[in-house]
Amino acid sequence: MALLEVKNLGISFGGLRAVDDFNLTMDNGQLYGLIGPNGAGKTTAFNLLTGVYKPTDGSFMFDGKEMSGKSPIDINKAGIARTFQNIRLFSDMSVLDNVKVGLHNRETYGLASGILRLPSFFKQEKEMYDMGMELLKVFDLDKEANFKSSNLPYGKQRKLEIARALATNPKLLLLDEPAAGMNPNETAELMDTIALIRNKFNISILLIEHDMNLVMGICERIVVLEYGKIIANGTADEVKSNPRVIAAYLGE
Amino acid sequence: MKKIKTKTIIWLIIAVVIYAVLFYLDATGKLSRQFSRLLIPVGINIMLAVSLNLTVGFLGELTLGHAGFMSVGAYSGCMFTVFMDLPVYIEFPLALLIGGLVAAIFGVIIGVPALRLKGDYLAIVTLAFGEIIKSVIINMDITGGSAGLKGIEKTTNFTVMFVAVLVTIIVIANLINSRHGRAICAIRDNVIAAEAVGINVVYYKLLAFVVAAFFAGVAGVLYGHNLGILKPATFDFNKSIEILVIVVLGGMGSITGSVVAAIIITVLPEVLRGLDDYRMLIYAVVLIAMMLINSNPRISAFRKRIESKFNLKKNMKEAE
């Protein structure tokens, strides 16, 4: 069974049809790209899949369960994690604490054992510390663990956001323009990191990106959106030679 | 984790030493009457400031109704001791608990709109809440109306106050340094991201409001049992502002800061009493000066340098 199965998903804001008839099927371990001109509805599609917006039409199944209309919290618990186009870190908290917030639902100690410092608090906090540091090591952030997250350079902030999303133990990771604002070196490094985390954590990834080198380089399949509608869905080569895609990007 | 345990022990030793010194000075009369009378108000203000810091500093929601929670707790706890006839060692702890719990219930009531409102809107709603509580108390017979609730036994002593302050600080500091506290801080920094990593925003906002209201309520009960009389006019808008001033002065999200600021703000007007007419003027000027100094980038850079030195030492110890 497919991991993610989106059927005819759509949303209207008043008269504006932001996403229309969105269909997508993803299996375990696949890496998909979502591209399209500005304002095509890519981020809106992400917001639908993560419960920020409630769809006005259609539905989507994740891991065999109906997910449309659920809250962002429930969707995250079910196994979909995301990053944001404009970085949304917990800016006043340390780098390690950002990841620990991501680990929040993986530990179970209650309010009382937190306040009374019962043994379960120490045991689980230690686990959180170890897991957090391990994740930071993957992204080469372990040396900055005690820095305030807003003091990190831009590229590392993007990495930290991915680390925090991974901390929630997702099966599907949605990356919203992970390479935005990065220079070519940083982008190349990010491509390696994305490939690495997919293999290491065995997850599926759906990413929005404008950097065509990155998208064409690592995505197995690419979905192209224009005016809220899917105009192409295929491998990099198929998409590249699709006349509708060329028209959307270059004009007729 | 061993580090945390030794730190706790050091803090406990410091607390016991402070208690012993203050108790000795107070009991032997080495502390002037003026200051020994201030010990309990200082403690009450510490409790109020630390608890308000949980909502304003850590949760990041500006509330102006903390005096409202205090009055609800004060009246319910004090009415319990006035109308009940139990031995004091049962009655007083029960009164503290009742005051805290009733205030906590009101914390839920005011917390629910707080889930929908933000920033200045929430500030106005909580401000209105405080005023409503005040008028309700004035217009009820059972509370003694505007004349006040009289005949409360003066059971609050220094030891009780000290223990209450200690419990407040420990509970709130431990809460903040647990996964639950991190969730509260995450909501402050970015609600959308907090939801995206599965933090139950509704629950943690309410939790912060309820815990803050509980301790404000307990502080109210202690206040009533210190003065022996409760007047609704004490719990007005000015009281809420005073607590907020303490929190801002001490630094949002700093418990130590709240404690120090509470001591300064409570003691300062008394120290200046000798200056008569200029008292409030100097008080205001000192406030302005402290705010300016606190927000000065050079001062905060200096503070950061010192903090980073401490952190470096700590990191080196960890490495060893």
Notes on the protein architecture:
The complex is a heterodimer of chains A (252) and B (320). The model of chain A has no long low-confidence stretch (mean pLDDT 91). In chain A, 40% of the residues lie in helices and 23% in strands. With 252 residues, chain A is α/β, with parallel strands linked by helices. Chain B has 320 residues and is an all-alpha fold. Chain B folds into 2 domains: 1-31; 43-255, no CATH class. Chain B contains 14 helices and no strands. The A-B interface holds A 50, 52, 71-73, 76-77, 81-82, 84, 88-93, 97, 100-105, 107, 109, 111, 114-117, 121-122, 124-126, 128, 146, 164-165, 167-168 and B 1, 4, 8, 171, 174-175, 178-183, 185-186, 188-190, 192-201, 207, 253, 311, 315.
Q: What descriptors fit this protein?
A:
heterodimer, A: 252 residues, alpha/beta, Rossmann fold, 2 domains, 6-stranded mixed β-sheet, 4-stranded antiparallel β-sheet, B: 320 residues, mainly alpha, 14 helices, disordered C terminus
Provide a count of the helices of chain B.
14
Biggest beta-sheet profile of chain B: none
Task: Describe the global form of chain B.
Answer: globular
In terms of structural class, how would the helical and strand content of chain B be classed? mainly alpha
Termini separation of chain A comes to 40 Å
Rg of chain A, nearest Å: 19 Å
Describe the secondary-structure layout.
The complex is a heterodimer of chains A (252) and B (320).
Chain A: E1 4-13, E2 16-26, E3 31-35, H1 42-49, E4 57-62, E5 65-66, H2 72-78, E6 80-82, H3 95-102, H4 111-115, H5 119-138, H6 154-167, E7 172-176, H7 184-201, E8 204-208, H8 212-218, E9 221-226, E10 229-234, H9 236-240, H10 243-250
Parallel strand pairs in A: 3-8, 3-9, 6-7, 7-8
Antiparallel strand pairs in A: 1-2, 1-4, 4-5, 9-10
Chain B: H1 2-27, H2 33-36, H3 39-58, H4 66-83, H5 88-114, H6 119-138, H7 158-176, H8 179-189, H9 191-196, H10 201-227, H11 237-250, H12 255-271, H13 279-295, H14 297-319
Helix pairs in contact in B: 3-7, 3-10, 3-11, 3-12, 4-5, 4-6, 4-10, 5-10, 7-10, 8-10, 11-12
